[in-house]
Amino acid sequence: MSLNDLIRLEGILPHLQAATKKQVLQDLSDKAAALSGMSAREIFDALLQRERLGSTGVGHGIAIPHGKIAQATSIFGVFARLDKAIDFDALDGVPVDLIFLIIAPESAGADHLKALARIARFLREPATAAKLRAARDAATIYAMMSIEPTSHAA
Predict the structure, then answer these.
(1) pLDDT tens digits for range 34-62
(2) Which listed residue (15, 60, 66, 152) is catalytic?
(3) Which terminus of the chain has a smaller tally of CB atoms within 10 A, N or C?
(4) Structural domain harbouring 10
């Protein structure tokens, strides 16, 4: 699975400015709603419900918030690079500046997990994260995400 199976150029926010985790989740929900036609409130509520289980801040300045929504017809994502890192209650306590939101249908099951694993593999590479942090436009970020993975293992 390539990341461009999950995200479109229009789903990349290269200069998001937000001061709090809640504001980031709201902004990403608004963008996801605009791209999908779903309710921003429903997306936001699904993300908050998932965050209550534990932070999706996975460490090294990266978060992968995600949720399942009945109205979703396919798995899709929104990516944001924050201009200023924020507290995201990440596992390692490091402020977050790279966020990849995933929305999946309630029936997605294993495909949802595969998408999360693919994103985590992509973002955990220090060189990739550094390039994403240096990127200044959506087209550059999208091009990085369009490169085929070197391994197809889940």
Answers:
(1) 999 999 999 999 999 999 999 999 999 99
(2) 66
(3) C
(4) 3-145
